[in-house]
Each structure stands twice: as C-alpha cells, then as structure tokens.
Amino acid sequence: MYETEYQTMVGAPLFYAVKPKSWLYIQGNSFKAYDRKKQLEELYLGDKNELYRFDKGQAVLVPDTARPPAHSARTCLLTTATILGYRCQLLQLVQGGVSTLVFYSPQLRIEAEGYRHCPAPGWYELLQATDGALPLRVISVDIQHDITVTREAIEVRALPLAAADFTPVAPAR
C-alpha cells in the first residue's frame, strides 16, 4: 500500500489535502494497481503481455507499440534510508526535465525478466535498474511543470494470490 503526496517545487500542497492511498499487487509476471477509491486502475497479465487501463470501470487494452523505450540516465547514490524496516538503496533516474529518486530494498525483489515486454512506461527499466527490487519511495521532480510527487509505501505484506485475483473484476484486498 502506498501514499502519494503532490506538491509544488516550494512545498505547497496540490490536489489533495490528505495523501491518497493506492494498492499494488504483484505475483509472478503480473501486477494490478488500485486507486484511492479501490477501483482498478491498471492490470498487467504477463503470460499474455496484456496491459489494461480502466476508464469508468471499463477495461481498455493498451496497445503494445513495440517501440524502444526512452532510457533514463541512471546514477546509484551512496545515500541510504530505512523504510518500513527495510534498508533501502537509492537510485536517481533523469529523463528530460524529470528527476526521480527511487528508494528500494534488495529484500523485496521480483523477477525483472518477467516484465521484459510490459508496455507500462518505465516499469521494466526500473526493475532492471534495481535488479528486480520494488520501490518503497519514489520522489519525482518535474521542473517544467513545477510539481514534486512523492509516493511512499506505508505497508508491505505477503498475500496468497490466485489467477482469479488478476481479472478485471477482482476486488482490492
């Protein structure tokens, strides 16, 4: 479970007074993400290489355009942090006018190669950069649009998930 905070570059809050929560579930080479209202936002079925986004509850298949992704400049930083008891390493990604700091723990790792063909922008690149470690805090700074977005894990737990949990009608847990 994550909380997301939106601010201007000088720290003034944007969009929400309260940090909205979101939920991410991963099993094997599939994932699903729910928004603050626990409505399905995104569903990736790795065995079929199908990414769905949801508009008013309706699944919309995202076309796999098979174009090579734009790569970010990567820098491993020596700074570390502890998030939810996990010792995290820090990676900086820079692409265009956006600089992103990714805090990740090698203790929370998935198989990155299962997402090699995933059309979700930046997902496979991030997993490659962290050797499959999942982000526990991501801070993106977009200078051009005067916005800083901080997404931080507030809970990590293992859940037994089945194939039925990765369908367009599966509820968040």
Give the gist of this structure.
This protein is mostly beta strands and 173 residues long. The protein is built from one helix and eleven strands; from the N terminus they run E-E-E-E-E-E-E-E-E-H-E-E. Strand 10 and strand 11 form a beta hairpin.
Q: Reading side by side through the largest sheet, how are the strands ordered?
A: 6-5-4-3-2-1-11-10-9-8-7
Largest sheet: 11 strands, antiparallel
Mean pLDDT equals: 91
Proportion of strand residues: over 45%
Helix content: under 10%
Number of strands: 11
Structural class: mainly beta
Low-confidence stretches: none
| Number of discrete helical segments | 1
Q: State the assembly state of the protein chains.
A: single chain
Shape: globular
